Amino acid sequence: MALWLTAVAIAALGSWRPVLWTYGAIGLALALATHVVFRDSPREHPWANEAERQLTAPVKAAHFRSPWRELIRHSGLWFFNAGSVGLNIGWAFLITWLPAYLQDVHKLDRLTDREPLCVHRARVQPGRDALRRLVVRPAHPAVRAAGDDGCRS
User: Fold this and answer.
1) DSSP 137
2) N or C end of the chain, less CB within 10 A?
């Protein structure tokens, strides 16, 4: 939902800068409201009356031990983070360098030439269909709707 709201706001305002300034102002307003409304204890809140303060007796806080040692030693967390870094680098390459590479090296028009996508579809379509038969019910509407991507068969 935020993606669509941001896109509509950018289109309405004509630039991304006022949208980000607006988001920043909303964030600061929420931070200020959080500071005003929330306290560590109900006894410290300025809106609490004396009867409410009497009901909240001081309670000794439990000692919380941070789990940093366990987090640092957790191999799954390290593999997940390494995979996330690799995935983000891959997406950054696809978004920034792949269109220019396809245009410069393979002389493809960025907007109109869909032939590489169709060749890719022809290569992966049999495996994708087999996976759908295994994972998704054939009568599912998403399976029927996913067949047309604009490529010539």
Assistant:
1) -
2) N
